[in-house]
Model the fold of this input.
Amino acid sequence: MTEALVSRSVIPAQAAVRPRAAGPPPHEDHALESVTVELGRAIFREIPKHAPSKISPARLDDLMMQLLMRDEDLRYRMLRFVDVYPALRTAKALGEHLEEFLTSPELATVGPGPFTALAQFLGRSRPATRGAIRLASRLGISRMGRQFIAGNTPEEVAKKIRRMEREGFLFSLDLLGEFVVSESQADHFAGRYLEMVERFGSLLGTEPSGRTPAGPRVNISIKLSSLTSKFEPMDPEGTSAAVRERLRPLVRAAQRTGAFINVDMEKYEYRDLTLQILLDLLDEPEFRGFPHLGTVHQAYLKDALPSLEWFLGELRKRGQPLTIRLVKGAYWDSEQIWARAKGWPIPVIMDKRETDASYERCLRMLIESNDIVRTAVASHNVRSIAHAMALAKAFKVPADRFEYQMLYGMAGPIKDALRAMGYPVRIYTPCGELLPGMAYLVRRILENTSNESFLRQRFAEGVSEEKLLSDPKSTR
Done:
């Protein structure tokens, strides 16, 4: 790591050792592994009961995603097209780009495929037919956006969430398009967040009967970089002051309305500063001890464990309860590109099994700390999900200190299976306009279709349950 990055880190080289909760000693880890595999098999038995019907929008979405998983050419071209789509303002521009995109010489290097056939058809078609294809491409992008993004207006999103709640799910609302380049834009996003915190409960109306008691009903995820145009790790004090100026009204509103605010994690360069700003806020007397706050920890980082060790130590010093959403991480590709461009070491773990093992180590540390931390297990990987269940049982974690979180539009049968097994499931629900949400959409397509994706391995490639449930810490 370069000197510039080290100077920005708030994490000491040696994190303080914290007290450990009572739990299974190391020699009982083999029993924990047996329970993990047993629970994983139970989940796999439950999943087929919740598969979408053969004729349904969900089934069509699954088929499209499986096609993207299997066809490298299709996935590459789809991502390129989605990437430039926001710049195509007119039907004419859309059509010209689509035609150029489909008939490029690169097709000759990848051999026959769906895009080659479509390009040949487009070249022979009449203007009216070409217009229909352009319209279909626009509708296809919009359909894909609706799969992963709940809607634009608060009313539209509230309608989707009420349906999710009737089905027994919780939610965390995320406003897309948070990148800002001016203070007026930062004011805009702060205002949108405030509106969500203050108004969303009334938009949802009466709570559904039998809702799982897992904290406040209204749960809002925010990105701190959207609260200032100069989110600068080289100026931690100035950035913290600027962000907290816009963050305070949001937390005060959450205190008044009984809402929950989760501070999302972004790229690696922002991680330490994000955590420090949250701690700075919690050191202010009016927010000290406020329980309805949370943040995110990314297990795919090489220093994930010492970072978590340090942060838990800081929470213990303050006696501060917090919810921590444990994710693997959604910026794997961009983190590599960013690090190589800067000439810095790549911060993410490159091997999937090592990432899964890191996730389980972090998960154990969180579960052990259930006296001060509420754990949100954010994963679509059945092995990781089952291991969390086994740890929760071993450490006798209270029901209100543990939940699962999954992404809107992904892994529907797994969500349904967990809900049927009696576990609380919160759905991370993006909202906002499609065009500003394109970066999020690309990340979701990459996550769903990557070679290392659990969903691809299980549902497109048919990898065996035994292999999918194997201990990632064991030798291959």
